[in-house]
Amino acid sequence: MFTLRQVTLTSITKRAFSSSAVSQAAKVAVLGAAGGIGQPLSLLLKKNNLISHLSLYDIVNTPGVAADLSHINTKAKVTGYVPDNDGLKHAITGADVVVIPAGVPRKPGMTRDDLFLTNAGIVRDLATAVAQYAPKAHLAIISNPVNSTVPIFTEALKKHNVYDPRRVFGVTTLDIVRASRFVSELKDTDPAEAKITVVGGHSGVTIVPLLSQCPFSFAEEELKALTYRIQFGGDEVVKAKAGTGSATLSMAYAAARFTDSLLRAVVNGEEGIIEPTFVKSDLYASDGIEFFASNVELGPDGVKKIHPVGKVSDYEQELINAALPELKKNIEKGIKFAKEN
Ligand SMILES: NC(=O)C1=CN([C@@H]2O[C@H](COP(=O)(O)OP(=O)(O)OC[C@H]3O[C@@H](n4cnc5c(N)ncnc54)[C@H](O)[C@@H]3O)[C@@H](O)[C@H]2O)C=CC1
Ligand SMILES: O=C([O-])CC(=O)C(=O)O
């Protein structure tokens, strides 16, 4: 039986690199690592050569997941922690990036907002620990509802005076991954050629695909059906999984891509890396919207440049108009919770 909080087969060595140095490797922590997303995500991250230490935390089962992954002959050392013996503190201390898929997933008939009651508290507690033990880490928040969990994280960091908006990211990559795949299915092309911009937030009508900006054209009915499918792609998976959860494998793929982009910009110093993500943004500040997903250029300090939404069609403007009030409500709900709890 594992009684130690650390189950790695190698000992922890002091990190001998700086996070700003070029071509260095990083410590990445995954919180919720034993879950449906956490396990395949950790597997994909184990293959990432920019990671020297993969640190896995969950309230259960992490020792087994870590022991299993630690046998794969890639560079990263793997350690696993549970809450005993200050596990969370040890899991995140010194982390360059913390990826957070902790929390409950949807069942058929639920909206992402229905997860708020359970996940808000989980995220708030993890954010408090991050503020204390990993205040300089870049944070990739997957836990739903993303439109509210990112504001909750932000407020918790503010309470501890360690908030840097350049380092807090809501992971919306799956929306882009889906959009690219769905368009390529329709147009019979390689998904790599179908780069679709999706802006707004990460739930239903707040997900706004900007298909007018892609190189393909669509008939009106096709455009509406495609837009709906991108906005409600998560529901397709929830329905098909019939009560056993929501997207995990495609999400793990998307989060591994986002984490890799972040590491390439932050740790490796690569330039020109652009990922869509839900961040503190001024794009719709005049509408009272504090956070918004759009294409973001990543740099050594995290967010380098938030790209504007760009030219949109009348239809897309209608979609944005429908998204903004819902997004505002979700954001305010997160902020209110964090301030009161
Ligand atoms: N941002 C996005 O695009 C997507 C977000 N999600 C969200 O990701 C979250 C996780 O989904 P799944 O992995 O499918 O759920 P899951 O239930 O399979 O795994 C969640 C894991 O979190 C752990 N956990 C619970 N409380 C914790 C805590 N306080 N600290 C650390 N770990 C804790 C659980 O033990 C479990 O292993 C859900 O909220 C889901 O809605 C899912 C798909 C896409
Ligand atoms: O639909 C869900 O609840 C999970 C999710 O965020 C997605 O698949 O986009």
From TrEMBL:
<feature type="binding site">
    <location>
        <position position="112"/>
    </location>
    <ligand>
        <name>substrate</name>
    </ligand>
</feature>
<keyword id="KW-0520">NAD</keyword>
<feature type="binding site">
    <location>
        <position position="251"/>
    </location>
    <ligand>
        <name>NAD(+)</name>
    </ligand>
</feature>
<comment type="similarity">
    <text>Belongs to the LDH/MDH superfamily. MDH type 1 family.</text>
</comment>
<comment type="subunit">
    <text>Homodimer.</text>
</comment>
<feature type="binding site">
    <location>
        <begin position="142"/>
        <end position="144"/>
    </location>
    <ligand>
        <name>NAD(+)</name>
    </ligand>
</feature>
<feature type="binding site">
    <location>
        <position position="119"/>
    </location>
    <ligand>
        <name>NAD(+)</name>
    </ligand>
</feature>
<dbReference type="GO" id="GO:0005737">
    <property type="term" value="C:cytoplasm"/>
</dbReference>
<dbReference type="InterPro" id="IPR010097">
    <property type="entry name" value="Malate_DH_type1"/>
</dbReference>
<feature type="binding site">
    <location>
        <position position="144"/>
    </location>
    <ligand>
        <name>substrate</name>
    </ligand>
</feature>
<dbReference type="Pfam" id="PF00056">
    <property type="entry name" value="Ldh_1_N"/>
</dbReference>
<dbReference type="InterPro" id="IPR001557">
    <property type="entry name" value="L-lactate/malate_DH"/>
</dbReference>
<feature type="domain" description="Lactate/malate dehydrogenase C-terminal">
    <location>
        <begin position="172"/>
        <end position="337"/>
    </location>
</feature>
<feature type="domain" description="Lactate/malate dehydrogenase N-terminal">
    <location>
        <begin position="27"/>
        <end position="170"/>
    </location>
</feature>
<dbReference type="InterPro" id="IPR015955">
    <property type="entry name" value="Lactate_DH/Glyco_Ohase_4_C"/>
</dbReference>
<feature type="binding site">
    <location>
        <position position="106"/>
    </location>
    <ligand>
        <name>substrate</name>
    </ligand>
</feature>
<dbReference type="Pfam" id="PF02866">
    <property type="entry name" value="Ldh_1_C"/>
</dbReference>
<feature type="active site" description="Proton acceptor">
    <location>
        <position position="202"/>
    </location>
</feature>
<dbReference type="GO" id="GO:0006108">
    <property type="term" value="P:malate metabolic process"/>
</dbReference>
<dbReference type="InterPro" id="IPR001236">
    <property type="entry name" value="Lactate/malate_DH_N"/>
</dbReference>
<keyword id="KW-0816">Tricarboxylic acid cycle</keyword>
<dbReference type="InterPro" id="IPR001252">
    <property type="entry name" value="Malate_DH_AS"/>
</dbReference>
<feature type="binding site">
    <location>
        <begin position="32"/>
        <end position="38"/>
    </location>
    <ligand>
        <name>NAD(+)</name>
    </ligand>
</feature>
<feature type="binding site">
    <location>
        <position position="58"/>
    </location>
    <ligand>
        <name>NAD(+)</name>
    </ligand>
</feature>
<dbReference type="InterPro" id="IPR022383">
    <property type="entry name" value="Lactate/malate_DH_C"/>
</dbReference>
<dbReference type="GO" id="GO:0006099">
    <property type="term" value="P:tricarboxylic acid cycle"/>
</dbReference>
<protein>
    <recommendedName>
        <fullName>Malate dehydrogenase</fullName>
        <ecNumber>1.1.1.37</ecNumber>
    </recommendedName>
</protein>
<keyword id="KW-0560">Oxidoreductase</keyword>
<dbReference type="InterPro" id="IPR036291">
    <property type="entry name" value="NAD(P)-bd_dom_sf"/>
</dbReference>
<dbReference type="GO" id="GO:0030060">
    <property type="term" value="F:L-malate dehydrogenase (NAD+) activity"/>
</dbReference>
<feature type="binding site">
    <location>
        <position position="178"/>
    </location>
    <ligand>
        <name>substrate</name>
    </ligand>
</feature>
